[in-house]
Amino acid sequence: MDKELFCIRGKKDLIFRKDHKNFYVYDPIALEYYNIDEIGAEILYCISKNFSLDKIIMVLTDEYDVEYEECKKRSY
């Protein structure tokens, strides 16, 4: 994933930013920061782009050492 700054819009807008090797989520309503790992950021980035579950699984299997069926099973 090469995106270092993205946003998920909804009831609450969440702003995601990569700082060195860490990803941070900023909640501008609660004025709070959260730390997430690279895989979590990858999944949330895909969600921000409205990828389907199958497309997200394909992205993860291409990027990480996980089989399609194992990834799909863990998504439920």
How would you describe the overall organization of this protein?
It is globular and about 40 Å long. It has helices spanning 38-48, 53-63, 68-74, and strands spanning 5-8, 14-19, 22-27, 32-36. With 76 residues, it is of the alpha+beta class. Helix 1 runs antiparallel to helix 2 (53-63). Strands 1-2-3-4 form a 4-stranded antiparallel beta sheet, with helices on one face.
Defining key terms:
76 residues, alpha+beta, four-stranded antiparallel beta sheet, 3 helices, 4 strands
Number of helices: 3
Q: Indicate the proportion of strand residues.
A: 25-35%
> Which spans of ≥5 residues are poorly predicted at pLDDT below 50?
none
Proportion of helical residues: 25-40%
User: How does the overall form come out from the CA principal axes?
Assistant: globular
Structural class: alpha+beta
Q: Report the average pLDDT across residues.
A: 87
Largest sheet, strands/sense/barrel: 4 strands, antiparallel
The main sheet orders its strands as 1-2-3-4
* Gap between N and C termini: 23 Å
The helix-strand sequence is EEEEHHH
Write the layout of secondary structure elements.
Elements: E1 5-8, E2 14-19, E3 22-27, E4 32-36, H1 38-48, H2 53-63, H3 68-74
Antiparallel strand pairs: 1-2, 2-3, 3-4
Helix pairs in contact: 1-2
Tell me briefly what this model is:
This protein is α+β, with helices and mostly antiparallel strands and 76 residues long. The protein has three helices and four strands. The chain has helices at residues 38-48, 53-63, 68-74, and strands at residues 5-8, 14-19, 22-27, 32-36.
